[in-house]
Write a structure and sequence with these properties.
CATH architecture of the largest domain in chain B: 3-Layer(aba) Sandwich
Radius of gyration of chain A: 14 Å
Distance between the termini of chain B: 59 Å
Shape of chain B: globular
Structural class of chain A: mainly beta
CATH superfamily of the largest domain in chain B: P-loop containing nucleotide triphosphate hydrolases
Number of helices of chain B: 16
Strand content of chain A: 35-45%
Number of helices of chain A: 1
Distance between the termini of chain A: 11 Å
Number of domains of chain B: 5
Number of strands of chain A: 11
Strand order of the largest sheet of chain A: 1-4-5-10-11
Strand content of chain B: 25-35%
Structural class of chain B: alpha+beta
Radius of gyration of chain B: 28 Å
Oligomer: heterodimer
Strand order of the largest sheet of chain B: 18-17-23-14-15-22-19-20
CATH topology of the largest domain in chain B: Rossmann fold
């Protein structure tokens, strides 16, 4: 098993229902700069009269709608530099996808 | 009884399709945990849990049996359940009271119909489970294909914790993906030694890939474990086990182990997995308290009773057995502590019960206990009127626990004693057998006076008649099996009926206006009172419901119970002097009889999900025969040299199928079937049925 290249730490957490749920993992380099993120896909989410099939947090913590809707089983997005570089069912898989996108992973 | 700490108790079931190896696995567990010193075999009729004479003669499990053993300082209470669909009630009630289960899947056939049925039952009761892929020594066994069938047929995340080393007659051990080592057995005999060794070179790459999948999946349920992984590039065995247990309990994934119980390989790691991954009574959320009458089930999260010996007593009676010593009531204790002679409240029926004696059961043997407490599964003697599914609770906290749902019988037979003087004995015997088995129903045919026994299948009823003979000494004649038809309506109709008898003396007067409307399948009967302005006084409304309900037992077409309809009482009239509850009940019955005829009634018949496993060269014969039986072929699947044909076939056409199948395939094919749904019968068959009942 290849150890992760970045330092990964817990990002934003959803405290809803009394069960904290990590919404994102943040990958930082040795200098402490955020290089990559893996973000949980949530949904469907009702807001007012609209129903969003799939949403995720952007780097600023804003909820954004995902279009087109990711396929079933793609529970996490791998993001590098603000770009989505892949999807995965599980957070560790998304971490590997993000690191692979950085090259040399 | 509980001297063992609650967190060291596991209440588990073993369940699977028929012949997947449940009882064989249980026997090995009892041997390796030191409970028995020799292993019984199903084919020899010597197993511990199959103690009934019929079980030993036929080599199948009929009734669930409870046994207790110890492993690594933990107490494991095991219930071995039947595989045959006719005895599914045993699986149902066992899963209701268990904290976890081992699901055994056959390594050759993968997931079979009964595995699916039992899996859905376990889903209903949220039972955490681990999967054991058995019989990997058999020709045609394929661990990975069996895993695929888990994903395809059960739609689950099947997570292998082991990989097989060798297969079929070369199967010699497993790769343990948690500890990343090989476990190899040195022989196939009972008690064969096993040892750890490095993973064989040829499997290292595959093991690494599966270990990564294991980490990806298991760690996703635990953020602290993810952080440990990010820090070290791996996690410790204890962390991984903690994650696997958490995911097993929530059902995020289902751990998969493998082996061959018959050849004594894989059983000890399976026991380790039971301890490591299945929950103790304190690891589960606790049993839900039933919603109170009038309260919507979805209104709020139900109150849950956590396992606590100090809390007020709460237990659920889940099985009744009558033997020569009296009535044994099996109870799962969820909270509190009880001593011999204590009194509890049967909160389901609203009366008090005194607990005479208490026993820990070991199949058909028993050890007396003076005290029992939360987490225990025990048997009480001395309860007078407690049935399957009743709650027993402390008077100071009279909770009612969620009831069990029982399957509906699909087949009837008439039964009568061979000699007149056995009538009473037969009635008592059948009543006791029906009290033990909620999937067995007893009724008297109003027209012929015959006793009608309704059950889940031919085998179920055959066993009951055999038990009647052996246990109650009654020789009985039985009629040909009859399909348990139902009736329903296909369009709404509103009927008004006036019951009027006012000629001399005190009269009777009632008028009701009722709309009869079809409901979705399996919704039963609903009654709605839509009367406004007191046209029918409030005190007579229950009589209207009672009248319709009782009349619905005798349908208008052929006298079968009418189901899946709604009766809405819209309006009516009454007389100050001559109206009574009885008059409204009579009016409601007549209104039903008249109204249902105009609501396009139909007869429904049970349709069975049939799976035939046949050699390739007989597929044509099997399919042709199923078509002749009004079967609808669902699919055909090849598994090695055999083909599995799945079809929906009316039960009426399946009586005696086994003999026809054997002669058609020279005894090489086999089949299983289970109830699937009710469908309207074709017109010509409906005419036949009505002519017969006329």
């Amino acid at each position: 098993m290849q150890p992760p290249r970045l330092h990964w730490m817990r990002g934003r957490v959803d405290e809803g229902d009394g069960k904290p749920r990590t919404l994102e993992w943040i990958g930082i380099d040795d200098a402490g700069r955020t290089i990559a993120r893996v973000v949980r896909v949530r949904g469907p989410l009702a807001s007012g009269w609209r129903l969003y099939r799939a949403v995720a947090l952007d780097a600023q913590g804003r909820v954004v709608e995902l279009r087109p809707t990711p396929p079933a089983g793609a529970g996490w997005l791998a993001c590098v530099g603000g770009q989505v570089v892949g999807r995965a069912a599980l957070p560790l898989q998304a971490v590997r996808t993000a690191e692979a996108a950085l090259g040399g992973g | 009884m509980t001297t063992t700490a609650l967190e060291k108790i596991r209440n588990i079931g073993i369940t699977a399709h028929i012949d997947a190896g449940k009882t064989t696995t249980t026997e090995r567990i009892l041997y390796y945990t030191g409970v028995s010193h020799k292993v019984g075999e199903v084919h020899d009729g010597t197993t511990t849990t199959d103690y009934m004479e019929q079980e030993r003669e036929r080599g199948i499990t009929i009734t669930s049996a409870a046994v207790t053993c110890e492993w690594a300082g933990n107490r494991i209470n095991i219930i071995d359940t039947p595989g045959h669909i006719d005895f599914n009630i045993e699986v149902n009630r066992s899963l209701r009271v268990l904290d976890g289960a081992i699901f055994i899947i056959e390594g050759v056939a993968g997931v079979q119909p009964q595995s699916e049925t039992n899996w859905r039952l376990a889903d209903r009761y949220n039972v955490p489970r681990i999967i054991f892929i058995n019989k990997l020594d058999r020709t045609g066994a394929d661990f990975f294909r069996a895993c695929d069938s888990l994903k395809e047929k059960l739609d689950i995340v099947a997570l292998p914790l082991q990989l097989p080393i060798g297969i079929e007659d070369q199967f010699r051990g497993v790769v343990d993906l948690v500890g990343m080592k090989a476990i190899v057995w040195e022989g196939s005999e009972l008690g064969a030694k096993f040892h750890d060794e490095p993973i064989p070179e040829a499997l290292v790459e595959q093991a690494r890939a599966y270990r990564q999948t294991l980490l990806d999946t298991a760690l996703s349920v635990d953020d602290a474990a993810m952080e440990e992984y990010f820090e070290h590039g791996d996690v410790g065995v204890e962390t991984l086990k903690r994650c696997i247990k958490a995911g097993t309990i929530t059902g995020a994934f289902r751990p998969v182990l493998c082996g061959t119980a018959f050849k004594n390989k894989g059983v000890q790691p399976l026991l380790d997995a039971v301890i490591d991954y299945l929950p103790s009574p304190v690891d589960v959320p606790g049993i839900a308290v039933a919603a109170e009458e009038g309260q919507e089930e979805s209104e709020a999260e139900p109150r849950r009773i956590k396992a606590d010996p100090q809390a007020p007593f709460a237990g659920l009676a889940f099985k009744i057995i009558n033997d020569k010593y009296g009535t044994l009531t099996f109870v799962r204790i969820y909270a509190g502590t009880l001593r011999t002679g204590d009194t509890v409240l049967n909160t389901t029926k609203g009366h008090r019960e005194r607990v005479g004696r208490m026993f820990q059961m070991h199949a058909d043997k028993r050890a007396e206990l003076k005290e029992v407490s939360a987490g225990d599964i025990v048997a009480f003697v001395g309860l007078k009127d407690t049935g399957t599914g009743d709650t027993l609770a402390a008077p100071q906290d009279p909770v009612v626990l969620e009831r069990m749902a029982f399957p509906v019988p699909v087949i009837d037979i008439s039964v009568e004693p061979r000699t007149k003087d056995s009538v009473d004995k037969m009635t008592i015997g059948l009543q006791k057998l029906a009290a033990e088995d909620p999937s067995l129903r007893l009724k008297t045919d109003q027209e012929t006076g015959q006793t009608i026994l309704s059950g889940m299948g031919e085998l179920h009823l055959e066993i009951i008649i055999d038990r009647l003979r052996r246990e109650y000494g009654v020789e009985a004649n039985i009629g040909a099996p009859q399909v348990a038809y139902r009736e329903t309506i296909t369009r709404a109709h509103t009927e008004t009926y006036t019951h009027k008898k006012q000629t001399g003396g005190s009269g009777q007067y009632a008028e009701v206006k009722v709309t009869f409307a079809p409901l979705e399948r399996n919704t039963g009967f609903e009654f709605e009172n839509s009367v406004v302005g007191g046209a029918v006084p409030r005190e007579y409304i229950p009589a209207v419901e009672k009248g319709i309900r009782s009349q619905s037992d005798t349908g208008v077409l052929a006298g079968f119970p009418t189901v899946d309809f709604k009766a809405s009482l819209l309006d009516g009239k009454y007389h100050d002097v001559d109206s009574s509850a009885l008059a409204f009940e009579i009016a409601a019955k007549a209104c039903f009889r008249e109204g249902m005829k105009k609501a396009a009634p139909v007869i429904l018949e049970p349709i069975m999900d049939v799976e035939v496993t046949t050699p390739q060269d007989h597929v044509g014969d099997v399919v042709g025969d199923l078509n002749r039986r009004r079967g609808m072929i669902q699919n055909q699947e090849s598994a090695g040299s055999t083909v599995i044909v799945r079809a929906h076939v009316p039960l009426k056409e399946m009586f005696g199928y086994i003999s026809d199948l054997r002669s058609m395939t020279k005894g090489r094919a086999s089949f299983t079937m289970q109830f699937h749904h009710y469908d309207p019968v074709p017109r010509n068959i409906a005419d036949e049925i009505m002519a017969k009942s006329a």
